[in-house]
Amino acid sequence: MLQEILDTRLMVKQSMKRHKSNKALQRVLHSRQLGLKLIANVTYGYTAANFSGRMPCSEIGDSVVSKARETLERAIHLVEATPRWGAHVVYGDTDSLFVLVPGKSREQAFKIGAEIAEAVTLDNPKPVKLKLEKVYQPCILQTKKRYVGYMYESPDQEKPVYDAKGIETVRRDGCPAVAKILEKSLRLVFETKDVSLVKSYVCQQFTKLLQGRINMQDLIFAREYRGMSGYRPGACVPALELARRWLQTDRRAEPRQRERVPYVIVNGPPGLPLIRLVRSPLDLLADPSLRPNATYYITRVIIPPLDRCFSLLGAEVESW
């Protein structure tokens, strides 16, 4: 059963590569391959569950984890023990490897990657299979499950695709200004390899923010509301704070559970708790005396994600 699920998922992913121009079909195929992945994961999860599971057998769950780790470590050893590839594994997690091939061109990287995939597949019993998914040039590997780079999926691909996982450009817990500034900065450094250009661009955006010339929509956070009973007593959560204020004037104004509540941080007197500076975007539009808190956005929202990326290149964004 699992073999059929995995084979079907591979077939769907190959179809996605063939029909890149059809956006609607891409969305359908992506949903299908994700559904198949979740079915396979749930099958493994059922075996690891205790009395509440449909088919509990913790020994199977433990052996899956153990054999997966063993297979991964054997693949890492094989890559590092083959001198003709000149490759070094920089990161390996669960079922994937990031392999660095210093001094090699993109074409050579694809060739070495294909050889590694074939060698690891032959080194394991069927149906274990390693496949070359993509080549990044360049790439910043931040931490576990957080990386960004220019992605190439085939040797004849001329224009790279900006691909990010786990960093602020693809996360929804920040504001759009962070995603835009970080993505533009990364594209600049990938294309020019000149951090001074990034510094110039970032300082320009800081100036615009301090002068109030940035689009207000880019400063809006949106966090999920869990309902009045979904928070511990005394919790300082912006969505909850706004809901309490709205309920004081209209009992029907409470957001629905799991609804994303938009808010901005405004200026206030020194020493005032941050939760007291939370306002609805509509309040900001209605009251001319309110201004976005530029210092908060620069120092607490924009600089930390930039620093996490560019500190790896030796730059101190805080000093900018």
TrEMBL record:
Keywords: DNA damage, DNA repair, DNA-directed DNA polymerase, Iron, Iron-sulfur, Metal-binding, Nucleotidyltransferase, Transferase, Zinc. PANTHER family: DNA POLYMERASE ZETA CATALYTIC SUBUNIT. Residues 1-311 form the DNA-directed DNA polymerase family B multifunctional domain. Its EC number is 2.7.7.7. It comes from Cryptotermes secundus. The keyword DNA damage applies. InterPro entries: DNA-dir_DNA_pol_B_CS, DNA-dir_DNA_pol_B_multi_dom, DNA/RNA_pol_sf, DNA_pol_B_thumb, DNA_pol_palm_dom_sf, PolZ_Rev3. GO terms for molecular function: DNA binding; DNA-directed DNA polymerase activity; iron-sulfur cluster binding; metal ion binding; nucleotide binding. Its cofactor is [4Fe-4S] cluster. GO terms for biological process: double-strand break repair via homologous recombination; error-prone translesion synthesis. This is DNA polymerase zeta catalytic subunit. One of its GO terms (cellular component) is zeta DNA polymerase complex. It comes from the Eukaryota. The keyword tRNA processing does not apply. Belongs to the DNA polymerase type-B family. It catalyses: DNA(n) + a 2'-deoxyribonucleoside 5'-triphosphate = DNA(n+1) + diphosphate.
